[in-house]
Design brief:
- By secondary structure, this protein is mainly α.
- It has a single domain, classed as MFS general substrate transporter like domains (Growth Hormone, Chain: A), CATH 1.20.1250.
- The chain is built from 18 helices and no strands.
- It is globular.
Length: 403
């Protein structure tokens, strides 16, 4: 244990840089959007179905994630993240100046999705994988917990600020916050050397991709992530609206969102500790299956506040654990050298699943079915995806590779 803790203490700079970078980058947009959504719909007259359909546009971003992942392996984390650190504040500032035309919102939303993903875990988690080995599960949990911790602390404050001063000043506040902390993360990050010094330019991309696609773990992870992430649209943009539809009063929304964020935070750390001590395929299956219980509860006719809180927490636990799980499993199965490349593809699959979920939800809402049918469908797909992860134990995923 002393060596375990010592590694975390010695690598405090990359850990802190990654935490700050994720906490101020594109990863927090789900909290921001959930808070802003009711105000935008009320002021501009947009429907819930229209707003849900906008989120499906992230499907276009799917093609970008593999490019960003590969760029991170070749150019380094700092150079890649710099793009998003500049773009995020600009995007939030533009959102604050919208005139009510939903096409403007779509354009800004799409542009941020394409550019600001350079500040997500696909990029920042490589810092952890590169510097931490023995305490990797907990280290990834620490880094991935940044957005969730920010949600616990800042979401209620932002919600109160928006209620008091309006959504436009709220977006400007987020823009300032994102810019200042983004720069701080870049300054803290260890030097990576000049381009070409990271060891990736001597490898042929074709050979790397061939080796990746021949690894059965890739296809298992890809299938599981597709099935488990269909309900992610709920956490990304629809949590506030779903809770209102469930009968939660506006004053209780902030508490529910904080409960979701706390569940996400707990999921990251408990999962990280478990990954460093238990077979990763068993840990992955158990944690991913938790959200199915929450989804089925939320889809039921139960309207009791304790059950709604439990549902939100369970969904949050899985969302939190997933960020740690996918980073850890990719590093174990593929090593560090092509980590960004594989993570980029996995993130693309996750984003594609979330976009597909948004399309399905939009169609169901247009049909007048409410959120319940979608939640029930996703409960089934999550169970199937979690079961698939058990197959990783048969393919050597638990044996460190490329360390």
């Amino acid at each position: 244990m002393p060596a375990y803790v010592r590694e975390l203490r010695e690598q405090w700079r990359p850990l802190l840089a990654a935490v700050i970078g994720l906490s101020s980058g594109y990863s927090i947009i789900s909290y921001v959007t959930s808070i802003m959504a009711p105000h935008l719909l009320r002021e501009f007259g947009w429907s819930k179905a229209e707003f849900a359909a906008v989120s499906s546009l992230t499907l276009v971003c799917v093609l970008v994630f593999p490019v960003i992942g590969r760029l991170t392996d070749v150019a380094g984390v700092k150079r890649t993240a710099l793009v998003g650190v500049v773009a995020c504040p600009i995007g939030y500032t533009l959102l604050s100046r919208m005139n009510g035309d939903i096409r403007v919102y779509i354009a800004i939303f799409l542009a941020m999705g394409l550019i600001c993903i350079t500040t997500t875990a696909t990029v920042y988690s490589r810092v952890v994988v590169r510097h931490v080995v023995h305490a990797r599960g907990v280290a990834l949990a620490i880094v991935a917990s940044g957005p969730a911790a920010m949600g616990v602390i800042a979401a209620p404050l932002l919600n109160e600020f928006v209620e008091a001063y309006g959504w436009r000043p709220g977006y400007l506040l987020v823009a300032t916050f994102s810019g200042v902390l983004g720069v701080a993360a870049l300054l803290l990050m260890p030097r990576e050397g000049p381009p070409g010094a990271l060891g990736r330019t001597t490898r042929v991309a074709r050979d790397d991709y061939r080796a990746i696609f021949r690894n059965r773990s890739f296809w298992i992870l890809a299938s599981a992530m597709l099935l488990c992430n269909l309900p992610q649209i709920i956490a990304l943009t629809q949590l506030n609206l779903m809770l209102l539809d469930k009968g939660v009063r506006p004053e209780g929304i902030a508490i529910m969102i904080s409960s979701f964020a706390m569940g996400t935070l707990a999921g990251r750390f408990v999962c990280g500790l478990a990954l460093d001590r238990l077979p990763s395929h068993l840990v992955a299956c158990c944690f991913m299956a938790l959200s199915s219980v929450g989804l089925f509860l939320m889809a039921s006719s139960v309207v009791s506040s304790p059950f709604i809180v439990l549902s939100v927490v369970l969904i949050g636990l899985t969302i939190g654990a997933e960020g740690d799980l996918i980073s850890y499993l990719v590093a174990r199965a593929f090593g560090v050298e092509v980590y960004g490349t594989v993570m980029g593809m996995m993130t693309a699959i996750i984003a594609g699943a979330a976009s597909l979920g948004a399309i399905i939800l939009s169609l169901m809402l247009r049909g007048g079915g409410g959120f319940a049918p979608f939640l029930s469908l996703c409960g089934v797909t999550v169970v199937l995806g979690a079961a698939l992860l058990l197959l990783l134990g048969r393919n050597g995923c638990d044996a460190p590779k490329g360390e």
